[in-house]
Design goal:
By secondary structure, the protein is an all-alpha fold. The chain has helices at residues 16-24, 28-40, 44-55, 89-97, 101-115, 117-128.
Length: 135
């Protein structure tokens, strides 16, 4: 695992989410969704994001230990153009995780019925995740 850093390659604002995704070995879209949810439900997400902008070192800083082999990237999270009912969010998550798309859909339904969070999460993911165009 790499130390947390700001990404120069995968950034929307300052590279916080991209760097965290690279460091943790997960898609940066998951990190972005977590920050949006933390901002919407409690407001702490924006405060943490701004703090990390100033605390984390830039990518390429010599103090960052690189354990990801050169030229190898973690696959990004995309919405599926084929496995979709509404926007392809569940299909994209299923392709990314290797799980059955029905389990992902069931999870969103359960989150919606239990707290209404499923709809909010789905809409945020719809906005954050790009549509896969190459398949």
């Amino acid at each position: 695992m790499r130390r947390l850093h700001l990404s120069d390659r995968d950034k929307k604002i300052a590279g916080v989410c991209g760097g965290m995704g690279e460091s943790l070995g997960i898609g940066s879209d998951f990190v972005r969704i977590a920050f949006v949810l933390a901002t919407v439900f409690g407001g702490v997400g924006i405060v943490v994001y701004i703090a990390l902008m100033f605390i984390l070192p830039r990518e390429g800083d010599p103090q960052i230990i690189d354990v990801i082999p050169e030229g190898e990237e973690k696959e990004r999270l995309f919405r599926s153009p084929h496995e979709r009912i509404i926007a392809g969010v569940c299909g994209g998550v299923a392709q990314y995780t290797g799980w059955d798309v029905s389990l992902i859909r069931l999870g969103f339904i359960l989150l919606t019925l239990m707290s209404g969070l499923g709809v909010v999460l789905y809409l945020i993911m719809w906005l954050v995740m790009p549509l896969r165009e190459d398949s």
